[in-house]
């Protein structure tokens, strides 16, 4: 017997937790599902229960309070569990397919709130597959959640304020940071955003704390520089950086080489839209929001009725933005399912709106300054591996383009890019940028190149599991 | 690659869980309850988790959040497990660079 819920919330990060607290709090029969053993997501990832801390940081406390709140609200919670498929049923509801040790195989849900977050935009450069090249998110998880330093001597390269956070945490952990490279020429453009920035007091004080640590360690912050190559035999031994021109292309002869065992790559974030694509939500291309994002209405409903998408998975906007969107979507589903009178829902939305505008204007600032530039593609060499799983090189992708490939799907069919374990999450960004770059003369754009289609299962699953995954008849 | 011992503002000291027995390619390494397999391996200085299929190049943790599949190891005989999102357990046997036998 498959249980039916009024709402399934997928992803228990800041957005999913708030959506659950809001909807289930109003009495909506809700199921919350997450891949990790504990709620929190990446931003509010909880310290393992078997670790004891002396004291909590402000973010840790805020996260724990939200986690405790979601654990208290009456709803089904399935953790350690992957949603591998969403199947639309004839009655208009959804069959939610689950994979997890203590999870039911399926649940049914009348409405969905997808809160699937984002991940570091994987930017390829020669040597990026070497052990010791780690994303900024991966580095922060090891540092904050595991208290393990991923190297002893690090170079940080990418774009965006997350680089400061990684640098400061690495320095406090005792790692020598040789340089932080910000690829975008953010000065003097940044100055016009001073007013928006001043309204973000929490962020300013956090940023000031990071800057103090970075300045204290005398770590150079190099604007308009980027990693161009990681070198090493079995692991990273050297990082080569170069000054970039205004279009983001390396300027020949402007290189520097550092001996390091860690390269942190943090080129902003990409929305995780796998499930939205799987069910054919209409997508739109917004590089400043991280790339392809689902089209949404003012209540965060996607092009498919009853499917709401909140947080970074609908366009990178940060944890606070995700929380506010989650609250609104949760209240909207409560209204739809008859648990919340129309006028009350409107009051809730209007209360949240000013905070949401403030988050959105901060998001616009970040987008304006830190959207990765397309020039980074010129870092690549013909033998650079672009698709890490299937080991497809730039040369092979260029050959596919010469043979007529004009979309990312055609490159995939001709070369096998995006057909490995990661299902294209790691190469889509670069493959699309390559096609647009190579065919710029024909007026090709990232938007026209398109995106990889996503089909179930969302992640690789054991065949023995899938063989038994046929839903029973009711 | 090391366990952070010193306490600081952003990374206050923690007390790890109980020590667990964990072997990597037959050798035991230090590991504590609450750690991920990847964290314990990196802290032990092990950086090659698997070799790529075609060119047999070393690969290691990249995304750290279960989506890139670069930290795959064999755990208790089960092939291709993600070390970054698997928690250590007492008696766990990890194998690196193991080819799938068909």
Task: Summarize the entry for a quick read.
The complex is a heterodimer of chains A (474) and B (102). Chain A has helices at 14-25, 58-72, 136-146, 162-173, 194-198, 201-216, 274-278, 319-336, 342-370, 394-402, 408-415, 428-438, 446-449, 463-467; strands at 4-10, 30-33, 52-53, 76-78, 82-88, 94-99, 106-114, 118-120, 133-135, 148-149, 153-159, 176-182, 221-223, 225-231, 238-244, 250-259, 262-267, 269-271, 283-286, 291-294, 307-309, 385-387, 392-393. By secondary structure, chain A is α/β, with parallel strands linked by helices.
Low-confidence segments of chain A: none
**Ends apart, CA distance between termini of chain A:** 6 Å
User: Which protein chains are joined by the largest interface, and how many residues does each one contribute?
Assistant: A-B, 60 and 52 residues
CATH superfamily of the largest domain in chain A: FAD/NAD(P)-binding domain
Number of domains of chain A: 3
- Give the rounded overall mean pLDDT of chain A: 92
CATH topology of chain B: Ubiquitin-like (UB roll)
How would you characterize the largest beta sheet of chain B? 5 strands, mixed
By DSSP, the count of extended strands of chain A is: 23
Number of helices of chain A: 14
Describe the main β-sheet of chain A briefly: 7 strands, mixed
**CATH topology title of the largest domain in chain A:** FAD/NAD(P)-binding domain
| CATH class wording of the largest domain in chain A | Alpha Beta
From the alpha-carbon coordinates, what is the Rg of chain B to the nearest angstrom?
Answer: 14 Å
Which strand order do you get reading across the main beta sheet of chain B?
Answer: 4-3-9-7-8
Which features characterize this protein?
heterodimer; A: 474 residues; alpha/beta; FAD/NAD(P)-binding domain; Arc Repressor Mutant, subunit A; 3 domains; 7-stranded mixed β-sheet; 5-stranded parallel β-sheet; 24% strand; B: 102 residues; mainly beta; Ubiquitin-like (UB roll); 5-stranded mixed β-sheet; two-stranded antiparallel sheet; 1 helix; 7% helix; 26% strand
